[in-house]
């Protein structure tokens, strides 16, 4: 079984190329694949490898003062959900697009998974899913508001249009692994909201911690790797990636007349230009040729 580790930490980093080189070396030496983002504000990403490989990477990170208290979430899969290693330098490790938002200065109140059910069951609490529409579509918590955003950059405008600090006194927020809530709660506090809570460790930690029979989670949880989604047992779900928009495709989606196998799904069908369709068809052709030769086409998979 491969260990899949999702991790992030907001911390001030300098000399990003050196960090990139050091982390890459540790990953390559231990057979770890996946994607990690580095920015001056910290680290974020998901990686996978053997138990020994992931432990070696975590040991290296924990040995560095900047990442000594870094936390991560784990799940298992029979195959490595990543085909290669990517370590990218970015302006933000999660892009909110609002200057000056710094979770190292202020964030909402953390709520452990064990206390989350009680919080979101209260009548005076507004529950907000900070993820994008295609993620919310396949699973969310009971009673959560869906901002219907297509990117995290749209979230601040949604808050300004739909939430009022004078009316919504208590707001509970959640996301996949916790990182988006770090920035969204920091933003909410700057907007004048006083009681802002977020699920510590995100949905993945909740699914890992709370027994299914006590769970208020409904559906699957979208993940950003080739598993597409995981169920409450953190096992691979029944979705596939759309080769065009990279959103999840369900069995129901495949029945739509806007689903084209290997090209597009109902969600992106009407948004694609003819040039994009031609490019996706050519990419799929190359993927199929690579498969026929027993190879992986890394430009289209993983």
From TrEMBL:
Q: Would I find Oxidoreductase among this entry's keywords?
A: yes
- Identify the PANTHER family for this entry: RHODANESE-LIKE DOMAIN-CONTAINING PROTEIN 7-RELATED (PTHR43268:SF3), THIOSULFATE SULFURTRANSFERASE/RHODANESE-LIKE DOMAIN-CONTAINING PROTEIN 2 (PTHR43268)
Q: Give the Rhodanese domain ranges.
A: 121-215
**Record EC number:** 1.14.-.-
GO MF annotation: an example = oxidoreductase activity, acting on paired donors, with incorporation or reduction of molecular oxygen
Q: What does this protein do?
A: Catalyzes oxygen-dependent 5-hydroxyuridine (ho5U) modification at position 34 in tRNAs.
* Family recorded in the similarity comment: Belongs to the TrhO family.
Q: What class of enzyme is it?
A: oxidoreductase
Q: What is the protein named?
A: tRNA uridine(34) hydroxylase
Query: What does the record list as GO biological process?
Result: tRNA modification
Q: Provide the species name.
A: Permianibacter aggregans
Task: Provide the alphabetized UniProt keywords.
Answer: Oxidoreductase, tRNA processing
Q: Which reaction does this chain catalyze?
A: uridine(34) in tRNA + AH2 + O2 = 5-hydroxyuridine(34) in tRNA + A + H2O
């Amino acid at each position: 079984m491969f260990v899949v580790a999702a991790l992030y930490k907001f911390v001030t980093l300098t000399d990003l190329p050196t960090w990139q080189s050091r982390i890459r070396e540790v990953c390559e030496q231990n057979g770890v694949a996946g994607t990690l983002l580095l920015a001056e504000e910290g680290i974020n990403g998901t990686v996978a490898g053997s138990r020994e490989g992931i432990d070696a990477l975590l040991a290296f990170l924990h040995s560095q003062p900047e990442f000594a208290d870094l936390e991560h979430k784990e799940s298992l899969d029979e195959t490595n959900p990543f085909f290669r290693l990517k370590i990218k330098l970015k302006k933000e490790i999660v892009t909110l697009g609002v200057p000056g938002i710094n979770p190292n200065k202020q964030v909402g109140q953390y709520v452990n998974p064990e206390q989350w059910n009680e919080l979101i069951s209260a009548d005076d609490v507004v529950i907000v899913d900070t993820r994008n529409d295609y993620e919310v579509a396949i699973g969310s918590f009971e009673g959560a508001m869906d901002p219907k955003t297509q990117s995290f950059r749209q979230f601040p405008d949604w808050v300004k249009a739909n939430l009022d600090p004078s009316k919504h006194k208590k707001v509970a927020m959640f996301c996949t692994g916790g990182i988006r809530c770090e920035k969204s709660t920091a933003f909410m506090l700057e907007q004048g909201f006083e009681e802002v809570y977020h699920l510590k460790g995100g949905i993945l930690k909740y699914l890992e911690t709370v027994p299914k029979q006590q769970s208020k989670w409904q559906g699957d949880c979208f993940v950003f790797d080739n598993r597409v989604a995981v169920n409450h047992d953190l096992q691979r779900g029944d979705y596939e990636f759309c080769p065009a928009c990279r959103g999840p495709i369900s069995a129901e989606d495949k029945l739509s007349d806007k689903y084209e196998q290997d090209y597009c799904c109902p969600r992106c069908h009407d948004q694609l230009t003819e040039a994009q369709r031609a490019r996706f068809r050519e990419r799929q052709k190359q993927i199929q040729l690579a498969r026929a030769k027993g190879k992986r086409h890394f430009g289209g998979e993983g």
